[in-house]
């Protein structure tokens, strides 16, 4: 099973044999890969019933739940890693969810579309909400409610005392390029962060 480049990168950040929780796990692709390739003991949380079913078919342990309800059912340090790919911008209180991620996990990993990406800026300058590969839906049918930029996320981490361990920004093809490395807030379409307290 081949993974998207961003998920492959995330899997390399996760220590083999660790305990991992994937928030908004989708069809369980990442967790199945981590189980098979890195011997990770993982669980997923997912709202979409179709994705829950697909994850279970992959042999992934998936719990049907809404992330907006919080993570109170999990004890402190229940996991080594708590991962959330392309869902941070969809929850009602992303700042509180980051706190919860680091309460129940030793380290967190998130990915999100960078609203500071040059094509987003250009669309807004034209008076329109952007539609890009990283933000493929129109304003009226998107699940995104809290879009942010690379700089916004890093400022929030600084305010909360969250230590950024790694940052990678990718283009729409999930590849790193020199422009995105040099000016991540302008040329990075998708941001990946690995962090801890």
Beta-strand proportion: 15-25%
Instruction: State the CATH class.
Output: Alpha Beta
Radius of gyration: 16 Å
At CATH level 2, the architecture is 3-Layer(aba) Sandwich
Classify the secondary structure makeup into a structural class. alpha/beta
Shape: globular
Helical stretch tally = 8
Helical content (DSSP H or I, runs of 4+):
25-40%
As for the CATH topology, it is Rossmann fold
Question: Can you describe this structure in just a few lines?
Answer:
The chain has one domain (5-196): Vaccinia Virus protein VP39 (Rossmann fold). The protein contains eight helices and seven strands. With 197 residues, it is an alpha/beta fold.
Account of the protein in words:
This protein has 197 residues and is an alpha/beta fold. The chain has a single domain, classed as Rossmann fold (3-Layer(aba) Sandwich). 34% of the residues lie in helices and 23% in strands. It contains 8 helices and 7 strands; from the N terminus they run αβαβαββαβααβααβ. A 7-stranded mixed sheet has the order 3-2-1-4-5-7-6, with helices on both faces. It is globular.
List the helices and strands and how they pair.
Elements: H1 5-13, E1 19-23, H2 29-38, E2 41-46, H3 49-57, E3 61-64, E4 79-85, H4 94-104, E5 105-113, H5 118-125, H6 150-160, E6 163-170, H7 178-182, H8 184-187, E7 190-196
Parallel strand pairs: 1-2, 1-4, 2-3, 4-5
Antiparallel strand pairs: 5-7, 6-7
List descriptors.
197 residues; alpha/beta; Rossmann fold; 7-stranded mixed sheet; 8 helices; 7 strands; 34% helix
């Amino acid at each position: 099973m081949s993974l998207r480049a961003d998920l492959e990168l995330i899997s390399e950040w996760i220590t083999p044999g660790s305990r991992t929780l994937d928030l908004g796990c989708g069809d369980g692709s990442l967790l199945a890969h981590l189980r098979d390739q890195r011997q990770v003991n993982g669980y997923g949380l997912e709202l979409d019933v179709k994705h829950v079913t697909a994850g279970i078919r992959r042999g992934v342990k998936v719990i049907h739940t809404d992330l907006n309800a919080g993570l109170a059912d999990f004890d402190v340090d229940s996991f080594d890693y708590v991962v959330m790919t392309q869902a941070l911008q969809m929850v009602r209180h992303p700042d509180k969810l980051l706190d919860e991620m680091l309460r129940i996990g030793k380290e967190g990993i998130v990915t999100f579309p960078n609203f500071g990406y040059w094509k987003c800026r250009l669309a807004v300058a034209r008076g329109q909400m952007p539609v890009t590969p990283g933000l493929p839906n129109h304003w009226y049918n998107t699940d995104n409610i809290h879009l942010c930029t690379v700089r916004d996320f890093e400022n929030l981490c600084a305010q909360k005392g969250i230590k950024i361990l790694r940052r990678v920004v990718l283009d729409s093809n999930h590849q790193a390029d020199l422009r995105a490395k040099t000016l991540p807030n302008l040329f990075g379409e998708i941001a990946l962060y690995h962090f801890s307290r």
